[in-house]
Known about the structure:
By secondary structure, this protein is of the alpha+beta class. It has 11 helices and 16 strands. Strand 10 (356-361) and strand 11 (365-370) form a beta hairpin. The longest helix has 20 residues, at 163-182.
Amino acid sequence: MIPHASPPRQGLYDPRHEHDACGLGFVAHIKDKKSHEIVEQGLRILTNLTHRGATGADPLHGDGAGILIQIPHVFLLRECGRIGIELPDVGEYGVGMVFLPRDAGARAACEHELERAVVAEEQEVLGWRDVPIDDSALGEGVRASEPVIRQIFVGRGLSTPDVDAFERKLYVIRKRAGHAIRALGLSRAQAYYVPSFSARTLVYKGMLLAHQVGEFYLDLQDEALTSAIAMVHQRFSTNTFPTWDLAHPFRLIAHNGEINTLRGNVNWIRARQQNIASKLLGEGLYKIWPLIYDGQSDSASFDNALELLYFGGYSLAHAVMLMIPEAWADNPLMDERRRAFYEYHAALMEPWDGPAAMAFTDGRQIGATLDRNGLRPARYVVTDDDLVILASEAGVLEIPEHKIVKKWRLQPGKMLLIDLALGRIVGDKELKDQLGKHRPYQK
């Protein structure tokens, strides 16, 4: 929703030809054991990826950084209680992290539209919370574009049967409100954006340096804020210019690399818009169009497309495999069922292709995949106390060698998936064999 500050096309310069390469990583407890230490380790990984980012002439002007965690229920229960918001049990409410305009009138208009969308989708507005921040270390240019940051709490409506249905409702609410707010014609100084809106995950991000994330967001310093996963990203902004909204992680992904086929991917989605249907989203599907706005980065566009597939009914891993398939067409060693799986899906969507390492999570599973050429490396280790640490390079956390039970790298086209509900790592072969057998793709 935030208009971008990139220069217009002029002379030999075309902003469509910008490219990027960032730093990403995550730490996850395989058994879904939540702790503040996981959050601290995520922030440490982020700080150790500082060299992957970039700054402007002002060394305090970062390209963007952030962290994605699970909903910290105990922490939010305490904080909301202090301001008179009564939160229900886990899964019965969602949290929207919202970037709002500094202008009071524009901010009130955005909040009104978001609340109106919540009510229209038969959910309940529980209240708003001001996110405590410390912006004293930000550069002048960053502070000038800094939004007001608030959290909206939404209760699950009686007509919404379960958490999965509630997640889809929150998705539709976010898209519906975003379209309405975009129609208001807010200026660049009246920016609005929703980094996350979920009953499972929460994103803290901004146009920050890596070390500033934990300093800027005071929530992240609280011992009561816990999670079993922490996915982090340090941006090198050359695909689009730095803005608060284009910092990673996005709502499902963090990305290191570039999608070279972006224009074709977006055009194909727009061309197929009228033919897309989903039993799960139902009439809500028509409330999300347009799916991708002009000016969004390749990562933001990928995240939007992945959301559509995920909330439309695909599992997260299935959707990622559909968008970033491994090399299958001329591979004589590939299992025939797996080849049929890829051949079938090639008719549904073209690959989002390019040198890319992609980390992804929905709060219940977390994983990563590599492009078919393996041009953006990703390394990972598994420890004897059930931690998995993956990053765009080795050595992001100091792990004693005797604690490491596995040390490896993602291979081209392969996927690593940690299922927190099952409490185990699902290997690439097992995962793809399961999906290949799920339907009679060879027929």
